[in-house]
Structures are given as C-alpha cells and as structure tokens.
Specification:
Length: 297
C-alpha cells in the first residue's frame, strides 16, 4: 500500500448520492459543522467535474480568504530567503492574487499561456497512475478546499495553499514544468506498480521536497517545503544527501512528519541531467536494475 493514501481525508458517496469527506478526530475542522459542510460541497464539485469544462467555483468565506492572505504573505517573505531563484522568477511571472484564494479555473488561465499547464479539481486522493500520468498532458490534479481557519499555518492534508502556492508557482517555470511533464511521461511508460511507485518517489524527493545549491547556499524548489510555514524554516537542518535516483526511488518516507531526509541537486542543470534524464528514459527494466543496485534495509 502506498502511503500517500493516509495523506488525504477519505471521500465517500452516501446512499443518497451526496458526498462526504471523512475528517479524522484530530483534524482542526473536525468539530466545525459549517467547515465540514463546505468540505463536502467542495469535494462534490470535483466528483461531478467533467474534464474539458470550466472548473466549478468553490465558495470560500471571508475568513478563508484571510487565511490565504496571511499564509501567502508569510510564505512570500520566507521564499525570498529560502526559495530558488528559478522559483522566485516563476512566482513573479505567474502573479497569483495575494489577498484572496484564486479559483482553480483562474490558476489554469494564468498558467496556460506560460507553460501550457491547467488545473483539474480532485476531491481527495487521486490514483497514482492518473495523478502522474496526466502531468504528461499538462494537467495538474488539485484539491480545492483550504485548511481550517483555526490553524492557518498548519494543515494535515494538502490544501489549495499547497497545491497553488507550492505547485502552480513551480509550474509557471519553463524548466520545472518540463520536469513535471517528464515525470508524467515516465508514469505512463512504466507498467508495474513497483516501477510506478519508484517514479513517484523520485517525484516526491524532487518536485515535492527537493533542495538545491543556489546562490551559494541551500535553497528549496519542492512544493511541499515551499508551501509549509514550519518546514521551510527547518529544511537546512535536515539530513541532506546527494541527488541519486536509485536511492530516492527506494527511500521510505513518512508523510505525517516533517521530511527529514532530503536530496540536494548541485544546480537546476544537474537536476535536469539526472532526474529529467531518468524520467525521459526509464522503463520497468531500468528501474528494476536501479532497485537491485541499492542495498536493502
Ligand atoms: Fe504536492
């Protein structure tokens, strides 16, 4: 079982056809019936979404827009210190609104002229092959809800702040978006679930949690770090290892904690040469060879 499943609140269809998101008892919004009703309504938008049509508008409260404005402001300050120059330039280029949550339709409308990417709504966990596969088509599955207002700087699940501030800013870069597409092509090419999981782990340790030498210091380009108020202050103190596809593809990770093992590229060119090249050429056999060469345990 791939562990990313526990990352998302499960979404179920009730007997009457309505959609219910199961928040765990420890979720900050668990005891808030108004928030839970909104989560159900937002999940229903994604379940009912027809590809190729405009993305339905999610209703957010003024309080939720304030959460976005606060987190957006705080992260922006940190990005100038901790994000790669490529990511910062892409952020400038995309020009996301700072004071309100953008609709996913709007995010795609901003991105498409830059790199061809569009967003599509996801209610919760998307099967790996679909999530990664459609990256090859320039499509990015995204949750649409925002974290509970009581904990603006924390979310147990990937919310619209992670999906848009973390990923859309990266997807506005020609070079990062090309890497996302190559990951998608790799996911489409491989056949075994073992090879697919390997491809997704390499993505996890790069486009989600990647760091690189940039401006003579360690900076982040991974969406998971750049959208996390806490993690962005911690990554330089983590266990930083050299970029190695075989090791990344076989390293276990726990999504419920801060990511404590990170892999450093020496430059964007290095990332493209090693990881881009891997995704561009890998298949089931080459991945089986990489798995065989890594000492297990
Ligand atoms: Fe992500």
């Amino acid at each position: 079982m791939f562990e990313e499943a526990q990352y998302f609140a499960p979404v179920a269809t009730r007997d009457d056809g309505t959609i219910e998101v199961h928040l765990g008892a420890g979720h900050p919004g668990f005891a808030d019936p108004v928030y839970r009703a909104r989560r159900n309504a937002i999940a229903a938008l994604a379940v009912g979404y027809v590809p190729g049509t405009p993305i339905p508008t999610a209703e957010y409260t003024a309080q939720e827009h304030e959460v976005w404005a606060l987190v957006s402001r705080e992260l922006s300050l940190k990005h100038h210190k901790y994000a790669t120059v490529e990511y910062l330039a892409a952020t400038e280029r995309l020009g996301l609104p700072a004071e309100r949550i953008p609709q996913l339709q709007e995010v795609g409308d901003l991105l498409e002229p830059l790199t061809g990417f569009r967003y599509i709504p996801a209610a919760g966990l998307v099967p790996l092959r679909d999530f990664y596969g459609v990256l090859a088509d320039g499509l990015f599955h995204s949750t649409q809800y925002i974290r509970h207002h009581s904990t603006p700087l924390y979310t147990p699940e990937p919310d619209v702040i992670h999906e848009v501030i973390g990923h859309a800013n990266a997807l506005a870069s020609d070079r990062y978006s090309r890497l996302y597409r190559l990951a998608g092509e790799a996911a489409r090419r491989v056949e075994s679930s073992e090879a697919l999981e390997f491809v997704s782990k390499v993505f996890w340790f790069t486009m989600e949690f990647g760091v690189m030498t940039d401006q003579g210091e360690l900076r982040a380009y991974g969406a998971g770090i750049l959208s996390s108020y806490g993690e962005i202050e911690e990554f330089r103190g983590m266990d930083i290892r050299p970029l190695d596809v075989a090791v990344m593809g076989t390293t276990h990770y726990d999504i419920t904690k801060y990511q404590d093992v990170l892999f450093r590229a020496e430059s964007l060119k290095h990332l493209e040469d090693v990881v881009g090249e891997f995704w561009a050429t890998c298949d089931d056999e080459s991945i089986a060879r990489l798995i065989a060469e890594v000492p297990q345990g």
